[in-house]
Specification:
Layout lengths: L9 H11 L11 H14 L4 H9 L10 H6 L4 H9 L8 H10 L3 H12 L2 H5 L3 H17 L8 H12 L1
Length: 168
């Protein structure tokens, strides 16, 4: 009889993500782990679950080849975490509509992508980039937000409260 796998804790997931991305830098030359921490914190402050926070730490791991897809498949994580990570993982040559549809169709994934977009589109982060890159990325992030139904400056939690208030 085999023993059941012990689930990775949130702090273990964070440590794995930090190690996997330790040598990476973002477009501005900053340690990539700063982005991961910001996305995870964004998910937390938006009311995300521990599973969503874990997925936020891992959101770019497979896409950036920091961790192989096989690692994720075999990791001692809830299936929901794996599903969210894979939902926000852009595939080579993938159509933007298919990508955003998968995010919308995967429970919990929208909050992770929302936090990712919020950090990526942070004016302070964008300000240090070349003007052409800044413009291209700003337009790309706005397009993805629109396709996901995210109103600029409004979180999914705020939209949910507004929708519930409108029903009352």
């Amino acid at each position: 009889m085999t023993e059941p796998h012990t689930r990775l804790t949130l702090s273990e997931v964070e440590a794995i993500a930090r190690e996997a991305h330790a040598e990476q830098r973002d477009k501005a030359g900053r340690p990539y782990t700063e982005h991961l921490a910001a996305v995870a914190e964004g998910v937390r402050i938006r009311g995300g679950s521990d599973e969503q926070i874990a997925a936020a730490w891992l959101h770019d791991a497979v896409e950036d080849d920091a961790l192989p897809a096989r690692w994720l498949a075999e990791a001692a994580l809830p299936q929901q975490v794996k599903d969210m990570v894979l939902a926000v993982t852009r595939r080579d040559g993938e159509d933007l509509r298919a990508y955003t549809r998968r995010i919308l169709d995967t429970p919990g994934a929208l909050l992770i992508k929302e936090s990712d977009l919020a950090h990526n589109a942070d004016p302070a982060r964008l300000a240090v980039l070349e003007p052409a890159t800044r413009t291209r990325l700003t337009e790309k992030y706005a397009q993805v937000r629109a396709m996901l139904g995210l109103t600029p400056g409004e979180s999914t939690a705020e939209q949910s409260v507004q929708a519930n208030t409108a029903k009352d």
